[in-house]
Amino acid sequence: MALDAIGIAGTALTVHRKWLDAVADNLSNINTATSTNGDAFRARYVLAQAGGADNGVYVAGTELGDAAGRVVHEPDHPLADENGNVRYPDIDYSEQMGSLIMAQRGYQANAAVVDRAKETYQAALQIGRN
Predict the structure, then answer these.
(1) d(CA 23, CA 69)
(2) Strand partners, 48
(3) Nearest alpha-carbon partner for 42 in 52, 53, 51, 29
């Protein structure tokens, strides 16, 4: 049972790590400007899916945000077009911070499950030695 818990929690750790990576990438590119004739940075959103009763969870894929982004009037920006507009990603900072907190807490919770299961397994081995 403990080994199943470790394996299942391990799959969740992987999903939460990939979620954290995507959020970090989104936040680091939130102010990345491009010219209006190019695509904006496309935010990544991790899609998780249950793997079954004993298989944990896995990353089913990623969705990308809108390439149109948001157009901002900044005539002094070096990438501004003839109308003074540049394109930024359409990333909501508050949403990303909320996702960051949820992914971090999920990672911490599953790491605690791995620790507890390991302690339980070690205790069972210790009982067997006595």
Answers:
(1) 17
(2) 59
(3) 29
pTM for this model (two decimals): 0.84
DSSP symbols for the chain: -HHHHHHHHHHHHHHHHHHHHHHHHHHHTTT--B-TTSPPPPPEEEEEEE--TTT-EEEEEEEE--TT-EEEE-TTSTT--TTSEEEE----HHHHHHHHHHHHHHHHHHHHHHHHHHHHHHHHHHHHH-
CA–CA dist 116, 65 (Å, integer): 38
What is the per-residue pLDDT across 35-67, written as a single tens digit (0 to 9) for each?
999 999 999 999 999 987 668 899 999 999 999
pLDDT in tens, 80-97: 999 999 999 999 999 999
Angle between helices 2-28 and 93-129 (to 10 degrees): 160
Q: How many CB atoms lie within 10 A of CB 127?
A: 8
